[in-house]
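Lab notebook, design round three. We kept the backbone fixed and only want residue identities now. Task for the bench partner: fill in a sequence for the structure below.
Input C-alpha cells:
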C-alpha cells in the first residue's frame, strides 16, 4: 500500500462547480476515485451559498465537522442539522448534499 500525507496548506485546492473547496490530504492505493475502494482523506470547505454533494463510495464515508454548521440531506432521509464537533457515517452508496447555515 502506498500513501502520502501532507499539510492542509500544501494541498492543492480544487473548487467544485457548487462552490466548495476540496483539498486531498491523504490517499492510499491506486488512483481512480472512491469507487476503487481506496482510503481518501479530504478537507472540504463549504462557504455560505455553496454546497458539497456526491455519493459515498463502496465502504461508506466518515465525516468530522471541524467548524461551522449546516444541513445534511443523505440517503433519501429528512435533512438533519450538523455542526462542529460531530462525526457522521454515511452508508455505502448514499447520495448526500451538505449546505452551510448562514
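Proposed sequence:
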Amino acid at each position: 500500500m502506498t500513501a502520502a500525507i501532507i499539510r492542509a496548506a500544501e494541498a492543492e485546492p480544487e473548487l467544485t462547480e457548487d462552490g466548495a473547496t476540496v483539498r486531498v490530504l491523504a490517499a492510499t492505493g491506486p488512483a481512480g476515485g472512491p469507487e476503487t475502494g481506496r482510503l481518501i482523506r479530504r478537507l472540504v470547505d463549504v462557504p455560505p451559498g455553496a454546497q458539497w454533494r456526491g455519493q459515498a463510495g463502496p465502504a461508506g464515508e466518515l465525516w468530522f465537522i471541524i467548524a461551522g454548521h449546516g444541513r445534511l440531506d443523505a440517503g433519501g432521509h429528512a435533512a438533519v442539522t450538523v455542526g462542529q464537533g460531530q462525526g457522521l457515517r454515511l452508508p455505502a452508496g448514499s447520495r448526500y448534499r451538505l449546505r452551510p447555515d448562514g
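Keep this in mind before ordering anything: The domain at 3-100 is CATH 2.60.120.10 (Jelly Rolls).
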